[in-house]
TrEMBL record:
Name this polypeptide is given: DNA gyrase subunit B
Job description of the protein: A type II topoisomerase that negatively supercoils closed circular double-stranded (ds) DNA in an ATP-dependent manner to modulate DNA topology and maintain chromosomes in an underwound state. Negative supercoiling favors strand separation, and DNA replication, transcription, recombination and repair, all of which involve strand separation. Also able to catalyze the interconversion of other topological isomers of dsDNA rings, including catenanes and knotted rings. Type II topoisomerases break and join 2 DNA strands simultaneously in an ATP-dependent manner.
Predominant subcellular localization, coarse grouping: cytoplasm
Domain Toprim: 433-547
The reaction(s) this protein catalyses: ATP-dependent breakage, passage and rejoining of double-stranded DNA
Keywords: ATP-binding, Cytoplasm, DNA-binding, Isomerase, Magnesium, Metal-binding, Nucleotide-binding, Topoisomerase
Cofactors that this protein relies on: Mg(2+); Mn(2+); Ca(2+)
Organism: Candidatus Daviesbacteria bacterium RIFCSPHIGHO2_02_FULL_39_12
């Protein structure tokens, strides 16, 4: 990437507002104050180094996790300017670190392409940290400044030779120029201040794919672990990673790279033989999880290009209807990345999850259409297999529509007649209604008797449902238990899905605490992830936590949800460990629940269904790529990845014998 103007001084720093809003409403600026928000702090500091890389200066980015929860991010870019800002009268470094919306991302002469549209970046990190230290190396000189909760402790000064750090580190930052930021998240703001190594590793690896040619170095001084990432081919490597457990229908990804009207468009496409779609999109290296105009442009171009190719090769005759966007999705893995002037980019929210620039839709569409036309012309064999895949998906879609129409004629798929096995609730407001999906008729009977019928509905499922990872929609709809579930939910499915019609905003999977129960739960999660994903992303899906044990001594009854909780109860009852092992304690009865059906309705209500006592786990998708990999590996057709997983994790298995 060509370097931008090398001039980077106090004159390029614009100042907009102070940091008090960040401390008052941290969620507005970093999304949350849990571990996700903590990792967002790391991302904001890393983004500053990425901006130097995108501008053509930094070649390395270091992230170091120290003991006692300190984190350091460093680069070998130009270093933040330290001279006095002409308008404010203090160092430009202090302006950037202590003022919201201050940085080289606004106005002329700073960054052309930037990851941080709003400029809250490192200043927000400063506001939400109990300690921050900034070090700058410029022109062979070293400067530093320290801060507490966003306020400078002293003026910017040269680093003393024997300066004491409040944390121990072995990290030796050997650079001529660059910036190093160390922070300790504020415990009064965050519920968690310990950065997770594996989570951070995924964050950095994703960025490394998108900023090809930059070295990323991750060190964990707590454990001694380290990781290093460098991808010269960028998106080509990422697309191969996304498809690593899947059978490919063409060996090499389609790579498209165009510069149109000062917008850098980069796209990678590769089809596999699965039935699911996996599309990632980015804008200025920021993941746009809700898509936006660049993704819309990509989908339009993909549909048009494949339709044109189908007409050109006469795979579609004159009388045939065009293939649809839905037909393109089956087995599609793609990455869409745009980079543009950060002054012009428009996101639809502070957390930058959806891109809003209307002009990007035709730009991306043009780039993708032209790129695909060249690819099909130069690779006719790959073009044919992609076309065959899409045509097969179109025939399956027609079969699924016929199957769905048949279901509707028989009794309704979309809400006209609820399934007979459903014990519905009286409440009609979805926000106040919940559906328990229960394993087996026995447990279903107990749940129906024990529930609060005002707001709790029960749907018992008989046996194990179909593995939907390996089935198209037409086959899925032939399975009676899934059909009953879809009807009860009211969402519809396939091309007519409407999440606004979801009849319950708490959908709770309740299965036995054994291997079969876990398998049924996994099958249900696979179905929701592949066919009704927004049920998960909207936060509607939960997993019930029935107790593992009933511990009774005399009239004293306690329920334990884990072995640790059981042991704690036994300590409370003053029962020694040896007595428990020998079951010699007078009047002590420990019952291990193998299934929900072993509990009577009152027990099931009290332990698992009563909102005042129950424990529910909400199902979320924090990392869609990782989730896709897991479902593909565990539930897909490819045996070797699953075999490797079992062999690797065999010692961790808890056998319920």
């Amino acid at each position: 990437m060509p370097k931008q103007s090398a001039k980077y001084s106090a004159e390029q720093i614009q100042v907009l507002e102070g940091l008090e809003p960040v401390r008052k409403r941290p969620g507005m600026y970093i999304g949350s104050t849990d571990v996700r928000g903590l990792h967002h702090l790391v991302k904001e500091v890393v983004d500053n180094s990425i901006d130097e890389a995108l501008a053509g200066y930094a070649k390395d980015v270091w992230v170091v996790l120290h003991k006692d929860d300190y984190v350091t991010v460093a680069d070998n870019g130009r270093g933040i300017p330290i001279e006095i800002h002409p308008k404010v009268g203090v160092s430009a470094l202090e302006v950037i670190m202590t003022t919201l919306h201050a940085g080289g991302k606004f106005g002329e002469g700073g960054y052309k392409v930037s990851t941080g549209l709003h400029g809250v970046g490192v200043s927000a990190v400063n506001a939400l940290s109990e300690y921050v230290r900034a070090e700058v190396r410029r022109d062979g000189k070293e400067y530093f400044q320290e801060y507490k909760q966003g306020k400078a402790k002293a003026k910017v000064a040269p680093i003393p030779k024997n300066g004491e750090l409040p944390f121990k580190t072995g990290f030796n930052w050997k650079v001529q120029n660059g910036t190093k930021i160390t922070f300790l998240a504020d415990k009064t703001v965050f519920s968690a201040v310990t950065v997770e190594f594996e989570r951070l590793e995924k964050q950095l690896k994703q960025v490394a794919y998108l900023v090809a040619g930059i070295f990323f170095h991750l060190y964990d001084e707590r454990s001694g672990e380290q990781r290093h990432f460098y991808f010269q081919s960028g998106l080509a490597t990422l697309i191969k990673h996304l498809n690593r457990n899947k059978a490919l229908i063409h060996p090499e990804p389609i790579l498209i790279h165009r510069m149109i009207e000062e917008v850098d468009v980069e796209v990678a496409i590769q089809y596999n033989d699965s039935f699911a779609e996996n599309v990632e999109s980015f804008a200025n290296v920021v993941p746009t999880t809700e898509g936006g105009t660049h993704l819309t442009g990509f989908r339009i171009a993909l549909t048009r290009a494949i339709n044109d190719y189908a007409r050109k090769t006469e795979a579609l005759k004159e009388k045939d209807e065009n293939l649809t966007g839905e037909d393109m999705k089956e087995g599609l893995t793609a990455v869409v990345s745009i980079k543009m002037d950060s002054d012009k980019i428009q996101f639809e929210s502070q957390t930058k999850e959806k891109l809003g620039n209307a002009e990007l839709q035709p730009i991306v569409a043009q780039a993708v259409k032209e790129g695909l036309e060249v690819f099909f012309e130069e690779n006719p064999q790959d073009g044919r297999v992609i076309l065959e895949k899409v045509l097969l998906a179109a025939r399956a879609r027609a079969a699924a529509r016929a199957a769905k129409d048949a279901v509707i004629r028989k009794g309704a798929l979309e809400g006209m007649t609820l399934p007979g096995k459903l014990a519905d609730c009286q409440e009609r407001d979805p926000a106040n209604s919940e559906l328990y999906i229960v394993e087996g008729d026995s447990a279903g009977g107990s749940a129906k008797q024990g529930r609060d019928r005002k707001f709790q509905a029960i749907l018992p499922l008989r046996g194990k449902i179909l593995n939907t990872e390996r089935a198209r929609l037409d086959k899925v709809l032939e399975f009676e238990e899934i059909r009953a579930l879809v009807i009860a939910l009211g969402t519809g499915i396939g091309d007519t899905v409407n999440y606004e019609k979801t009849r319950y905003h708490r959908i709770i999977i309740m299965t036995d605490a054994d291997v079969d129960g876990e398998h049924i739960r996994t099958l249900l999660l696979t179905f929701f992830f592949r066919y009704l994903p927004e049920v998960i992303t909207k936060g509607y899906l939960y997993i019930a936590q029935p107790p593992l044990y009933k511990v009774q001594k005399g009239k004293d009854i306690n329920y334990a949800y884990s072995d640790e909780e059981k042991n704690q109860i036994l300590k409370t009852l003053k029962i020694g460990k040896d007595s428990v092992i020998m079951t010699k304690s007078p009047g002590l009865i420990i019952q291990r629940y193998k299934g929900l059906g072993e509990m009577n309705p009152d027990q099931l209500w009290e332990t698992t269904m009563n909102p005042e006592n129950r424990v529910l786990k909400q199902v979320t998708i924090e990392d869609a790529v990782a989730a896709d990999e897991v479902f593909t590996m565990l539930m897909g057709d490819e045996v070797p990845p699953r075999k490797r997983f079992i062999q690797t994790h065999a010692k961790l298995a808890i056998l319920d014998i």
